[in-house]
Design the sequence.
């Protein structure tokens, strides 16, 4: 009856351990739990867990109750050379043969090389007696580690050999542990594969243009660091805000994916460095033709006036011709100046451009044409930057495409908000952002963070084709103006500047 009860208790213990192993999400705590529970079941004084890495057994967990030694549970490196997987080493033998080894007294056997344990005993005064070594085999029967228990103890704490029935119990535990480890590794591999895919996709998008060469990476890094700063802040504003690992990962992934919609943005728009770009050469060629046209008209009239002896008309003609050529050359220079995005087009300058555009010339078919086409006039009339209203809408559409693309990805539960966060990085607290025009109460903290770091990087980036990197001091002033205009979160901007978050990334 007592034996049956003990068996039932052991089975229940194994079941509970199996549940605990399956539930544990931290890799280091899982390894520590394996050794701790194995020692508890066998009442072992010490235990070591090795993992197979490159034909060697690496120390990952070490516990010795007598020596008060507990290492590896927090992920710290155990500074002991790995054990070669060879048959003369008991742990190596177990890894190679997949067999359990139960040794009542290591000083009474020559089956294995125990010079290491004996040297440890001589150095520390510890007495190694019994040893139980069990392989950790995964579902493919591949040994992924070895569990080594030392010195089973009786009820008085004296070292004794490991009872044979413990072999099956610890073997069962080792099997459950191996499955738990493999499952965790599989999840980690899948997550790493996904993260690599995200970075590859973002890099591919950025590589379409030098304008975005490192933008996505910087946004993701800045977002992650700002979240870390929030966690570290003692300010009352952030006392109830915390980014655990999952929340921070979701933010960073959204940072990596925030511009994925630019895959659909035409390069002609995304790379537009000046107001009219390639059209400038066409305008200059047209102005050359106009110059020839004006000269031809002048020479034709000049001959007529000379033949008629009209000296007064000839002088007036020459004056008019010189004025036309001066106006043409001044117009050429003005267009070149306005094409530069650093030139601000005010009302006076806009009037001059419109006047130039209204001038006409005749082509070779005798058809009258304006000096500038409607599209050229529209492009040159852009007040700030390089994009026309139509081009700006095309550019802004990348956020909608980002949402559409990310909605197609079956994100896991802990990443379910990535599409939302990534697609609202151009929303403003005052409701004047895009594409949804969200107001402050509808924009989560993650969206506010991405909006801030996206603007900051756009201002300070050195790889934009249409402008030089803005000095840091000026960029921070602009962030301040955006706060005053109700666009950015004032508390976030204050923290971002106070902690100099940009210095925390490479």
Sequence:
């Amino acid at each position: 009856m007592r034996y049956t009860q003990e068996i039932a208790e052991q089975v229940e213990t194994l079941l509970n351990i199996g549940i605990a192993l399956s539930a544990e999400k931290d890799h280091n705590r899982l390894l520590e739990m394996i050794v701790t529970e194995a020692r508890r079941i066998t009442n072992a004084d010490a235990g070591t867990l090795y993992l197979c890495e490159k034909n060697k057994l690496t120390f990952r967990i070490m516990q010795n109750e007598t020596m008060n030694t507990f290492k590896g549970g927090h992920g710290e490196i155990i500074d002991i050379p790995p054990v070669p997987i060879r048959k003369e080493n008991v742990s190596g033998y177990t890894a190679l043969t997949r067999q359990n080894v139960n040794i009542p007294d290591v000083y009474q056997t020559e089956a294995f090389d125990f010079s290491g344990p004996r040297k440890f005993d001589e150095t520390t005064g510890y007495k190694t007696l019994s040893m139980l070594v069990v392989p950790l085999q995964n579902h493919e029967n591949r040994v992924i580690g070895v569990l080594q228990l030392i010195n089973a103890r009786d009820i008085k704490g004296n070292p004794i050999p490991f009872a044979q029935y413990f072999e099956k119990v610890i073997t069962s535990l080792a099997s459950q542990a191996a499955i738990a480890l493999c499952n965790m590794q599989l999840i980690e591999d899948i997550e790493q594969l996904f993260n690599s895919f995200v970075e590859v996709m973002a890099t591919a998008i950025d590589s379409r243009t030098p304008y975005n060469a490192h933008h996505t990476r910087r946004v993701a890094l800045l977002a992650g660091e700002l979240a870390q700063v929030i966690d570290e802040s003692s300010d009352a504003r952030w006392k109830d805000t915390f980014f655990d690992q999952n929340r921070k990962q979701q933010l960073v992934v959204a940072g990596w994916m925030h511009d994925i919609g630019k895959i659909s943005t035409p390069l002609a728009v995304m790379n537009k460095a000046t107001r009219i770009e390639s059209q400038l050469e066409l305008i200059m060629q047209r102005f050359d033709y106009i110059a020839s046209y004006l000269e031809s008209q002048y020479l034709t009239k000049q001959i007529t006036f000379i033949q008629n002896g009209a000296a007064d008309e000839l002088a007036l003609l020459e004056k008019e011709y010189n004025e036309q050529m001066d106006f043409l050359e001044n117009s050429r220079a003005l267009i070149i100046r306005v094409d530069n995005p650093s030139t601000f087009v005010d009302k006076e300058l806009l009037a001059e451009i419109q006047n130039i555009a209204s001038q006409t010339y005749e082509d070779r078919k005798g058809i009258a044409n304006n000096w500038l086409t409607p599209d050229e006039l529209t492009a040159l009339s852009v007040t700030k930057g390089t994009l026309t209203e139509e081009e700006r809408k095309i550019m802004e559409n990348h956020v909608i495409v980002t949402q559409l693309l990310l909605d197609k990805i079956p994100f896991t539960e802990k990443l379910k908000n990535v599409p939302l966060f990534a697609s609202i990085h151009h929303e403003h607290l005052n409701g004047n952002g895009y594409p949804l025009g969200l107001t402050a109460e509808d924009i989560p903290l993650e969206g506010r963070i991405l909006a801030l770091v996206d603007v900051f990087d756009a201002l300070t980036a050195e790889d934009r084709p249409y402008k030089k990197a803005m000095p840091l001091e000026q960029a921070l002033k602009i962030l301040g103006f955006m706060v005053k205009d109700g666009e950015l979160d004032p508390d976030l901007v204050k923290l971002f500047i106070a902690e100099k978050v940009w210095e925390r990334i490479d």
Q: What stands out?
A: The two ends are 67 Å apart (CA to CA). The CA atoms of residues 100 and 168 lie 9 Å apart.
